[in-house]
Amino acid sequence: MEKFFATCPRGLEPLLVEDIAAAGVTDLKAIPGGVHFVADWPACYAINLHSRIATRVLWRVANGKYAREDDIYKLALDTPWAKWFAAKQSIRVDVVAVKSPLKSLEFITLRIKDAVCDRFRADKGARPNVDTREPEVRIHGFLTVDECTLYIDTSGAPLYQRGLRQKTVEAPLKENVAAGILRLSGWQPGTPLLDPMCGSGTFLVEAAQMALNIAPGAGGRSFGFQRLRNFRLETWKDLLDAAQDAEKPAQHAQIYGSDISPVAVRAALANLDRAGLLPAVTLSSGDILEIDAPAPSGILIANPPYGERLSEQEELAAFYPQLGSALKRKFAGWNCYLLTADLRMPKLMRLTPSKKTPLFNGAIECRLFEFKMVAGSNRPA
Fold first, then answer.
1. Can you give the pTM of this predicted structure?
2. What mean pLDDT is predicted for residues 350-358?
3. What are the tens digits of pLDDT across the range 142-167?
4. Are 115 and 77 in contact (CB under 8 A)?
5. What gap in Å lies between CA 192 and CA 73, rounded to an integer?
């Protein structure tokens, strides 16, 4: 059994626990930003393939106390890197620290890279090259106050990069955040789902994949574990074949998307088409303030603009009350979930959220507001 750490967007840790447990893992512990777990390699492959929430799955290869940069260099030098990958493979080192007394993360990153190369020279007479853009092997260092842990990344490119998105519009939502919101909303395939501000279609793609039981990692992307010496091709092929056998044929799944921007609708169309999901989704062009609900009840999910400039803030302050009335007028019987970094939204919409969940989209702290739209007036008699 090996020790791993799976990272995820802040706020989605309980969902990541569910994903890891679904791979048969019982020894796990959630902390802010991820989940520590102990598992065998088939479970690691399965989590990379099936988790919609994980950002990366990191394999722990070394851990030790430190007081100075030299202690971290020695820890990396004592680690048998050549056991796991070849000198001809390119590497990248990333370091994250929480409450570390050391001043420069850049210098620590450099010291770990030097130690890896020095160890390769000693063992193999050759050293790996550094490639910060598309490395074959990613090494991660994590520092606490007095402890350093070294990991090899089993995911490669972040897992939210499903290998599907071709076209994006401004400020796209990360796929694992979108999948997390769908899960937090309680949406189940078969329930009508509408994203009336669909942008390039992130919610729509994730929902259609869920409805058709398509594993998020089955879209033709590669993984870091495939480039390690201990990679077991047969095990991986069996997992991938089983995932592909479980997929349902593409058919209408009561998933609806629209956007006021024809450019956004075209981008969503291209992304759904590329993913082979177009039959599952009904797309149209329209203003959220004008469109009708596609069913008597269902779940509405949207990621409205946040407004970073003052002029945008003023526009949004005028837009939110209109949005509140449109939802009351047209979406009685629907549960509405709006992700925003603009905490004024509920007050300006004149609606009281029944739930608010803190979430991060990248570095942006957001809230997922839940509004249950009841038929008739929202005021008690």
1. 0.93
2. 96
3. 999 999 999 999 999 999 998 766 66
4. yes
5. 55
Domain count, the chain: 2
Q: Mark whether 87 and 206 lie in a shared domain.
A: no
Claim to verify: residue 30 and residue 79 sit in the same structural domain:
yes
Residue 222 lies inside a defined structural domain of this protein: no
Residue after which a domain boundary falls, among 121, 153, 185: 153
Neighbours of 136 (CB within 10 A): 20
pLDDT at 308: 63
Spatial distance between the Cα atoms of 56 and 174, rounded to a whole number of angstroms: 13
Separation CA 380–CA 153 (nearest Å): 54
Confidence tier at 378 by pLDDT (50, 70, 90): very low
Where in 144-273 does DSSP place strands (E)? Answer: 147-153, 193-195, 255-259
* Burial class of residue 65 (count of CB atoms within 10 Å of its CB; 0-12, 13-18, 19+): exposed
Whether 115 and 73 have beta carbons less than 8 Å apart is answered as yes
Which residues are CB-contacts of 213 (< 8 A; sequence separation ≥ 6)?
Answer: 246, 247, 248
How many CA atoms within 13 Å lie on the side-chain side of 49? 24
The proportion of the chain whose per-residue pLDDT surpasses 70, expressed as a percent, equals 94
β-pairing verdict for 193-195 and 255-259: parallel
Check: CB of residue 253 under 8 Å from CB of residue 109: no
The answer to whether 4 and 43 have CB atoms below 8 angstroms apart is: no
DSSP for residue 130: B
Alpha-carbon distance 173 to 158, whole Å? Answer: 14
Q: Please indicate, yes or no, if residue 325 is contained in any of the structural domains.
A: yes
Query: For residue 148, what are the domain limits?
Result: 2-153
Asked if residue 188 and residue 105 are part of one domain, the reply reads: no
Kindly state the tokens that stand for 144.
């606490």
Q: Which amino acid is at 360?
A: F
Phi-psi region of 285 (alpha: psi -120 to 50; beta: other; left: phi over 0): beta
C-alpha separations of 374 from 54, 230, 269, 329, 377 in Å: 35, 56, 32, 10, 7
Neighbour count for residue 365 (Cβ, 10 Å) = 13
Q: Based on the domain organization, do 270 and 321 belong to the same domain?
A: yes
pLDDT averaged over every residue in the chain: 94
CATH number of the domain to which 88 belongs:
3.30.2130.30
